[in-house]
Amino acid sequence: MRNGPTQAGGHEEQPYFPAIAGENEYVRTDEGRNRPSLFWRFTLSLSSLLILLSVIGGAYFGSIVLPSLEDDLMHPAMLNTPSIRVLDRNGRELGARGGRYAPIVPLQDLPPYLIDAVLQIEDKRFYSHWGVDVIAITRALYTNVSAGRVLQGGSTITQQLAKNLYLSNERTFSRKLKELLYTFWLESHFSKDEILTLYINRMYMGAGNYGMQAASEFYFNKDIRAVSLAEAALLAGLTKAPSDYAPTSSLERAHARAREVLTVMAASNRYDQRIIRQSIANPALARVQIPVPESQYFTDWVASQVDDLVPNFNGAIFVTTTLDPDLQKIAEEEIHTTLKEQGEEYSVTQGAMVTLERDGAVRAMVGGARYLSSQFNRATQAKRQPGSAFKPFVYVAALEKGLRRENYISDAPITIGDWSPKNANKKYRGQVSIGDALKYSINTATVRLTRKLGQGRVARTARKFGFSTPIPAHASIGLGTAEVTLLDLTRAYIPFQAEGFLPQAHGITQITDSEGRILYEHDDTPVRVIKRSTARRMTYMLYQVVASGTGKRASIGSRAGAGKTGTTQNHRDVWFVGYTQDYVTGIWYGNDDETPMEKAYGGNIAASSWAHVMKDAYKGKRLTSLTGAWKARAAVRDKSKAQQFYARLSDLFHTTRPLRPERPNTGLVRRGGTSYERP
Q: 209: which strand partners?
C-alpha cells in the first residue's frame, strides 16, 4: 500500500488507494494480451451510454422541475383554494366547501398519547431517519413480494406530508421523484418537531377535514387537546386511508383500524395494558351528523359569492349567513310533505321556496325536492314564467299613473292581432274595478289596463323592482310571460311590505378568517322604488286577494297576509308570493321538463303551502299588524266567527262600488269651469 502524507507532514498507511502498477503493466504489446474482451467492452460502452443518458435526462428533468420547485414548496397546493365553512345565523355549521381547516395546534399542546399513536402506527423511526426509512422500505418490499400483493408501505411521515401538501396521488416516476425532492427539502428546512406539527395539523382526515383539530371538532365535537386514548387512536388511524376509515364512511372500519393502532401501542410496552384493553373495549363514537341536505342549496348559493366578496383569499374562512334554521326546517318539511301527499294528485315533482325579511335577508331557501338527487337550485337558477304573480307590477304602474283601485276597466273578450287572451274561468264580468281585477286575477282586464298604460311603462315599472332577467315590453307582459327566478320575484314584493324600499337579497352577513379578522361585512342601503302611499295601496289590494280573492287558501286566520297567485299556461308553473309584516315568502311548484300539471293552480297547492309555512313560522309569536291592510283590522284577534264576518263585510263596503257602464272616452271634460281627466 502507498503511504500518503499526514496532516503533520509525516506518512500514514492509506488503504483506499491501490499500489501503483509497474510502468509496463498497461503497455500495449504486439500480442494484445491485455486487450479487454468483447463482453467487457460492450458492458463498459453500455454503462457509459446509460450514465450519459442519465445525466442528460436528469439535466432535462431538472430544467423542467427545479425552476418551479421553490415556488411550489413555498406555496402548498392545499392552500391555493380557500376553505369555506358556512354557518347559519346562530353560528351552527351548515356545510363546508373546499375542505375544513383549523388553526395550527402546537405539538406541546397535544396529548402525548396522540403523538405516540401517530408515530407508532406511521413512522416509528421518525426521529432517527433523514426523510426516507430504508429499513421500512426493505421490510415492506419483502412483505409485499412474499404475499404477492401490497400489504405494507414504506413511506415516512415526511414523505406523506410532502405528497399531501404538494402532490397528487398519480403513480408515475415523475411524481415519485418530486416526492423525494420535496421530502429532502422539508427535512433540510424544518426540524423534526415542525414536520410532525405540520403532519398532524394538515393531513387529510376524511369527510372534508384537514388536520386532526378540524377532524376532532367534526367527528367528536371537541378540541383535539381533550380527546381520549380511544379517540386519539381513531384519529391516528385515519391517515392511511381517510376515505375508507372515516367514521362517517364506515364506523366499523374506523373501529377496526383504531384497534390496530392500540395493538401496536400495546406492543411498545409503554402503556398500562389494562388501559389499552379498556380503550379497545370502548371504542370512540363519532357524534351523529344531522343531515340537512336541502339547506345545501343555500350553502352552494352563498359559497359561490365568496370569491367575489373576498377575491384572491387563500386559507380557511368562515361565512356567517342569514339562514334561520327553524324557518329552514319548516320550509323543507312543507315542500317534502306537499310533494309526497299531493304530488300524484297534481302530477307535480318539484317545488322551491324562499323566505326573506324586509331588509332582504334570506331566512330560508329550498331549491328542490331533494338536494342529493339534483343540485340545480330552482330558487335561484331556474327561469320560469310567473303568470299572474307578475300582475302587481301592472297595477303599481296604474297607481303611479294616477288611477285608483275604484276606477273601472272592462272585463270582456279582447283580441290583439292573432292573440286572444282568456280568463281562467272562461267568464266575463263586464265593468270591474281595478281592485277587483287584481283581486280575482282577471286576464282581459289586466291586458286592457296594460294597453291603456302602455307596455313600455309597465316594463319600466317592473324593471325598477330589481329583476336580473330581461323584462321585454310585449303585449302579454301583464300576464307574466317574461321569465324570472323565484328569488327575484319574491324580493320584488318587498317594497309593498317595506313601504316602497327595495333592498338587496343577501345570504351573507359577515366573512372572517381563522383568526377572527373581518374580511367582509354586509352593508346595504335599500333604494326607494315606489312611494309609501303606493306601497300601502298595493298592500291593501293584495290583502284583498288573500281575504276573499284567488288567494283565499293563503289565509292565516287573524293574522294579516297579502299576496298574489300565479298559474302559467297549461299549468306548467304555479306560484304564490305573499307577505306578512315580518316575512316575504315565495313558493313555486312544477316539473323540470315543464310537463303540465293536473288541475294545479297558484290558488290551491301553492297558496295552501304558503299558509302552512306562515302558520308554523308564527306559532307562539304575538300578533302583528300589516301596514296597509284596512285599519290593520287583521291584527285584532278574532274571538268569534261573527266578528270575522262583520269585519269582512266592512271591507266589502269600502272596496265595492255600484256597477256602471264603461265611459267611452278618457278625454278632458270641462264642467263648471274646472277641467279634469275622466278615469
A: 100
**What are the tens digits of pLDDT across the range 579-588?**
999 999 999 9
Residues paired with residue 350 on neighbouring β-strands, in sequence order: 590
Grid coordinates belonging to 663: 265611459
Give the contacts of 668 (CB within 8 A, at least 6 positions apart): 675, 676, 677, 678
State the catalytic residue, choosing from 83, 155, 388, 555: 388
Rg of the chain (C-alpha set): 38
Name the nearest CA neighbour of 543 among 403, 648, 453, 396.
648
Is the overall model pTM greater than 0.85, yes or no? no
> Which among 378, 366, 371 has a CA at the least distance from the CA of 323?
366
Catalytic residue among 122, 179, 231, 332: 122
Written as nine digits, the cell of 146 is: 412474499
Q: How far apart are CA 548 and CA 629, in angstroms?
A: 13
Q: What mean pLDDT do residues 496-511 have?
A: 97
| Per-residue pLDDT tens over the stretch 362-421 | 999 999 999 988 999 999 999 999 999 999 999 999 999 999 999 999 999 999 999 999
Known catalytic residue at 625: no
- C-alpha span between 646 and 662 (Å, rounded): 31
> What grid cell was written down for 396?
303599481
Q: Is 332 annotated in the active site?
A: no
Please, are residues 533 and 567 in contact by the beta-carbon 8 Å criterion? no
Rounded Cα gap, residues 316 and 103, in angstroms: 9
